[in-house]
Amino acid sequence: RRLHLTDTRILSAIDFDRHPISGLLYTVLEVEGQHGHELVSIDPQTFEIQRIGDTGRRWDNIAFDSIGQLFALPAPDEVEAGYLAVIDISTGEPTRSWEYTPGTGQHALALNTDDGLLYHFQGSLNESYHFESIDLSTGFRQTIPISLPDVLRVISSTSAVDLDRQPMTYAGHGNFLIAYGIEDLWLTTTGA
After folding, report:
1. Using an 8 Å Cβ cutoff, are 122 and 143 in contact?
2. How many helices and strands (H and E) does the chain possess?
3. Which of 22-26, 126-130, 150-154 reaches the highest mean pLDDT?
4. Out of 43, 53, 68, 177, which could bridge 48 as a Cys pair, Cβ 3.0 to 4.6 Å?
């Protein structure tokens, strides 16, 4: 099904994640005539869309923690691109959280439900990669070394980008699936 708002045109859906308690899907939308992305919730049973608000910024990626806080990475050209933000899911208002190192390439966030840490991937194919865990209670960041090709490998390739894929999904047991353009990458925190 296609997302539709009655009073404005949706240009793209940037990312989505499921709220860990309510089960609602949340996404940030690029809408016509608005600089900041619109935060909306979607009931996966009825597909009813609830507009929450203009976040005032553009985002690259969103992810919930285990208690329902929505974290977001700003687009690289945003003023506060070097800060992980928390978006209030009742208003769409972002607040600055922890600093991170913005770099070139794709950024992705995912919660590891086994250890409760948020993971951040940043990289460009055939260039540099950065993978880190973030302790959401302290803000402590731990860099996870990536050694190609053992840790990161292409597991599938298609001729077109599938816009329904999340940028990074936790698959369990320390493994993440990263949707990277037309390729799916498998990354493991165990190095195997």
Report:
1. no
2. 0, 16
3. 22-26
4. 43
